[in-house]
Design brief:
Radius of gyration of chain A: 15 Å
Shape of chain A: globular
Number of strands of chain A: 7
Oligomer: homodimer
CATH superfamily of chain A: Gcn5-related N-acetyltransferase (GNAT)
Largest interface: A-B, 38 and 38 residues
Structural class of chain A: alpha+beta
Strand order of the largest sheet of chain A: 1-2-3-4-5-7-6
Largest sheet of chain A: 7 strands, mixed
CATH architecture of chain A: 3-Layer(aba) Sandwich
Chain lengths: 163, 163
């Protein structure tokens, strides 16, 4: 598996992943009927950079990196990760997250923040905690989950830089 | 003092307030050299609605309201408030915040979130706490303060709806 920056042409392979995650409505605050154009804007254009994990010419996962805010908050980045169904259980999310942390430092960031980790997404919470992200906030009933109704969302944060 | 929706023409009076807050670099994650065009985009165009507090034809303060995220998080709004120097000590921030909570419910939101309240801005923290906002998160060193260096930022949250 290699991780490389996504090209414009990669979006054809990225879109089914984003569409499926959006349609499920369980982990990302995207409209469940997200259009392809809006998906491309959110995943490819709004972010600073977008990457894909690829094996044997198949895209197994993807992540973006962007500043979380500006001005005095410019040293904190935000990333989002998605794994294709065929990439599950192969360490793709871990590989993407570790890559993104190195990329964050290369791009001059000092910390990484996840603003809305849905509390019911326990696989993600456990993985991010294991990779050194601390749960620094809990937003009561901040996410309307299609199966569970209003559930809490978590804010996760990791300081990456030496100082 | 009345609070009313801002018109395009109001930005001439709003801009000095936004510019001063941005230039100070102490409370908002805006570039300190924020341009007027970017200020207008951030305060007037990105938000869903923008309001002003006015007394005797002078604008004493302003706030915006917008969705904090989309999809399953669409019931949570985000607001930002700024008070002009001549509005200080006159209850303007309280009036704006109370107005914004009513407006949030009118617009169909159920909760309000402040994503980055700078921990050194104790006047704001105390006021929001007094107005029912709970500190639900602390982001370590998430803000680079011109006077204090890297300081923590707080996440504040209030559920507004009946259920």
């Amino acid at each position: 598996m290699i991780i490389r920056e996504a090209t414009t042409a990669d979006f054809e392979a990225i879109w089914p992943i984003v569409q499926q995650v959006a349609a499920a409505g369980e982990t990302y605050p995207y409209p469940r009927d997200l259009s392809k154009a809006e998906g491309e804007r959110l995943w490819m254009h709004v972010p600073q950079k977008t990457f894909v994990a690829e094996a044997n010419g198949r895209i197994l996962g993807t992540y973006y990196i962007k500043p979380n805010t500006g001005g005095g908050g410019s040293h904190v980045c935000n990333c989002g990760y998605m794994v294709a169904p065929e990439g599950r259980g192969r360490g793709v999310a871990t590989a993407l997250c570790e890559h993104s942390q190195r990329m964050a430092l290369e791009l001059g960031y000092k910390a990484m923040q996840f603003n809305l980790v849905i509390s019911t997404n326990q696989v993600a919470v456990r993985l991010w905690n294991k990779l050194g992200f601390e749960t620094v906030g809990r937003l009561p009933k901040a996410f309307n989950h299609p199966g569970h109704g209003f559930v809490d969302a978590l804010v996760l944060y990791k300081w990456l830089a030496e100082a």
